[in-house]
Design goal:
The complex is a heterodimer of chains A (about 190) and B (about 260). Helices cover about 45% and strands about 15% of the residues of chain A. Chain A contains eight helices and five strands. Classes of the chains: A alpha+beta (about 190), B mainly alpha (about 260).
Chain lengths: ~190, ~260
């Protein structure tokens, strides 16, 4: 077993017994290696678990890591791990999508994109722990910033935010048809 | 048709259909069903797509009638009426501009000015991308969830395993009894003199400067059991909201409350 294999095995075991997500710094310190070494071993572990189609996956959120079950077996595990959960409403999904793609973002940003008051729906997301407060923005009023959680990744079967499908916004033509009309002579 | 001749007549149905009059103007063939909580952008986008028009090029002014008619037929949550009416006003403004002759360039590109068609279209396009992303997200909702390990019993913090002296319990009971309860019989209507919200404010103020509060001292300073109970509930509420952190280093030691990091 090479030193790298050994480090990967150690980190895997550590994450298995951990009762909460561990940060890169914590993992590096516990393994007695540098941060970059730990990061490299974690990335390799994540790849190995996915490529070998193992029952577990490595999830990453910012600098925190946790082991979770593979999405492919998620549905079959429901019999054991089932929590009575209702599907999210379209309004909740919209608000969640803004937070997921724009995080950290404020309630004002959610409401600006949706064009509708989003206080209630955002609170329901907070209550479900899909969204969490991440501090405040340093602008007038110091609005609260929101971001997504591990619970969000778990629910949607994502190992990291990088797996979110890209959200593409078409750019409207600079001159819409309405303004291309022939100018009418004044008078 | 020279638009200037009958622009008033063209605008009249729009005005008639405004929700204040609640006069429904049914438009056959376009039944738009939207889930509750949909905003004005959702309605406008649905109107465009139900006509198979391109959001990037459709002259938004042409949608004013349909939008206002939809508003008249579908009651809007009063709390959100302002947002719907704001978009209606924008559309009617665009429509009136498009009909006025000889005034091709009243459109200001000053950013502080009211949003023009470009701005409204940009919002629509942005909203469409969001809506599609939300739909894609919804298709994954709970479909292939990942599960983390549930905390086991052994993960929970362990209290002392040595048996406790009975005296401690007696002491605790005495301490509880020591909190004076005002004597006068309760009136039929009990005024809510102290609320959880009030105690939350008090706690927040005390903690705001980075200070710490000892729970036992806090409760000891309460003047009645009701106040003590409400104070404890306020503390628990702040813990639940993860706004404060509570630590106790040793069994029966001081319980320290501080702002969550």
């Amino acid at each position: 077993m090479t030193a790298a294999d050994d480090l990967g095995a150690f980190l895997e075991a550590l994450l298995f017994i951990a009762e909460r997500p561990l940060t890169g710094a914590e993992l590096a310190e516990l393994a007695g290696v540098s941060r970059p070494e730990a990061e490299a071993a974690l990335s390799k572990l994540a790849d190995d678990l996915a490529e070998d189609r193992r029952g577990l996956r490595l999830q990453r959120m910012d600098d925190a890591w946790q082991l979770a079950t593979a999405p492919e077996v998620g549905e079959r595990l429901a019999a054991y791990a089932a929590r009575e959960e209702a599907r999210l409403t379209p309004a909740a999904l919209e608000a969640l999508a803004v937070v997921a793609y724009r995080q950290p973002c404020t309630r004002g940003e959610v409401e600006r994109v949706r064009g509708v008051d989003s206080d209630y729906v955002l609170r329901s997301l907070l209550h479900r722990r899909l969204v969490v407060e991440m501090g405040r923005r340093d602008t007038p009023g110091r609005p609260i910033l929101y971001g997504t959680t591990f619970a969000f990744l778990e629910r949607f079967g994502l190992t990291s935010l990088d797996e979110l499908p890209p959200m593409e916004v078409d750019t409207p033509p600079t001159l819409p048809a309405a303004q291309e009309q022939e100018p009418v002579d004044a008078g | 048709m020279p638009p200037e001749l009958d622009s008033i007549e063209v605008l009249q149905p729009v005005v008639d259909a405004m929700p204040i009059r609640a006069a429904p103007v049914p438009e056959p063939g376009f039944e738009v069903q939207l889930p509750a909580f949909s905003g004005p952008l959702a309605v406008l986008l649905q109107l465009i797509e139900s006509r198979q028009l391109d959001v990037l090029t459709v002259p938004l002014a042409e949608l004013a009638d349909a939008y206002v008619a939809h508003l008249a037929d579908n009651p809007v949550d009063p709390a959100q009426l302002a947002e719907f009416v704001a978009v209606a006003a924008q559309l009617i403004l665009l429509k009136s501009r498009s009909m006025l002759p000889g005034e091709a360039l009243p459109i200001s590109h000053d950013e502080a000015d009211e949003p023009d068609e470009v701005e409204l279209r940009r919002r629509l396009v942005e909203y469409r991308a969001l809506r599609d992303a939300a739909l894609a997200l919804g298709e994954r909702d709970l479909v292939a969830p990942m599960h983390r390990r549930e905390p086991r019993e052994s993960d929970l913090p362990v209290a002392s395993v040595t048996p406790l002296p009975v005296g401690l319990l007696v002491e605790a009971l005495h301490a509880l009894a020591a909190i004076p309860e005002p004597e006068p019989a309760p009136p039929e209507i009990v005024a809510r003199e102290i609320t959880i919200a009030m105690q939350i404010t008090v706690l927040r103020t005390a903690l705001a400067a980075g200070g710490r509060v000892i729970l036992q001292q806090l409760l000891a300073s309460c003047r009645s059991r009701t106040e003590a109970t409400v104070t404890l509930l306020a503390t628990l509420e702040l813990v639940r909201r993860r706004q404060v952190r509570v630590r106790q280093r040793e069994l029966f030691g001081p319980i320290v409350i501080e702002m969550a990091p």
